[in-house]
């Protein structure tokens, strides 16, 4: 199975040529996929929980602990894999994302338990069961997903068609309207997020780094806003991250597209500083990156901001394999090629799985809770078995 290279025309600059080589899915076995896709029920697991990270500070009401993170460990009756999976949720989400779906089918955590993986599920710092201990600007200044945002971008993009691929969306379970029980369950699970992602993202990276220090080498599975957190964790603990599966990681590089426009992710794929070679410190040198606009010949795909060659490399992210997954109808289908190309250019060992290329159609950004979630998750399992040694 081959990925078609995307064709680009360069802007008037000619300094950069981005080689997007066809990526071969040697690990993909359609028969195994069919076999695995039968999980209907929750599976038995031993559950325990603990907190990681955080620090004691002298707050307005005396000493308190802050920035600790709630982690739940689910352990199957028979453990078959050396490395556990650590799930990293996206914006406005908590660990319930990976449990049963909003329409009460088995979720991806259950699938991996059924396959003998230990699974760790965390509520990011200052979300869900991870307390907001301190009055601080980050505490007071939060953002929330309103109803229209959730429908337009997450689960019913086919109605408002805010990006070209949105019309292909078919896999959300239910009507995506208020009053539909599945929709109400999903919307009720959305949670606040601090507005300023810079300092906040570093506290999350620190908490997950503390988690890896405690549990040892693991495979990370990130989604959306969790994507940059995953890159940061991999950068901070390259010897404890065995692989990253990045489900539609937040992007594209250096700027927003579709939902918003304008600069974002000043370190390319992250808001928090990350290790480049040669080193980049934007506080000391705000112009450390030389960027070029690389335009797509196809209006269905975004124009990208890339590094000019020679591109600075991401040496820590080069130390383990990465699988990026993009669905057919998500807003990420419009621009994830920019993130993939950026990682390739930075020397990272990344494969890009576009579900449409293997005949899985109609998914949007919350693929793990959509109707065919059990058709998609075996692909991740297959990749891990083939790639993580
Ligand atoms: C490339 O795209 C940008 C917008 O993304 C546009 O401003 C610019 O004019 C385009 N350049 C060319 C050569 O088409
Ligand atoms: C693409 O493949 C060619 C030939 O195998 C190789 O020289 C080049 O480094 C590859 N480029 C990337 C970005 O992997
Ligand atoms: C802690 O803060 C309180 C009031 O904010 C202050 O009176 C006290 O000296 C502080 N203690 C330490 C050890 O800094
Ligand atoms: C909250 O954050 C936004 C965006 O950074 C900013 O414009 C606004 O002034 C902040 N509000 C408060 C109360 O800090
Ligand atoms: C980045 O540069 C600033 C300003 O020069 C400096 O204070 C800071 O320590 C630097 N950060 C790192 C990680 O070197």
UniProtKB/TrEMBL annotation:
Signal peptide feature range: 1-19
Protein's UniProt keywords contain Glycoprotein: no
Species this chain originates from: Lachnellula occidentalis
Protein name per the record: Putative secreted lipase
Keywords for the protein's UniProt record, in alphabetical order: Signal
